[in-house]
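User: quick one, fold this
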Amino acid sequence: EAGVLEIGYWICSPATGRGLATRAAAALTEEGLGLPAVKAMEIHCDRANARSAAIPPRIGYRLLRIEADEPQTAAEAGRSMVWRHDGA
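Assistant:
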């Protein structure tokens, strides 16, 4: 979609729980929304990944939709949560 940027994050297990992904996603969101041609930012994460799914609402994203997705690992649900932040 024109004007929409997607960000992603991955943190190795020993570094989880420190807020690193939250701070990085917040910084990327702020920078992205500051670009003139960008109207919104998105984060897509697998529904089974509760830790990743907890980040978007903390930094102002709203759940836009849940869609079918091809699982990449056995731990994935095959349902992708699409979160959007429009700068509001």
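User: anything notable?
Assistant: The chain has one domain: 4-85.
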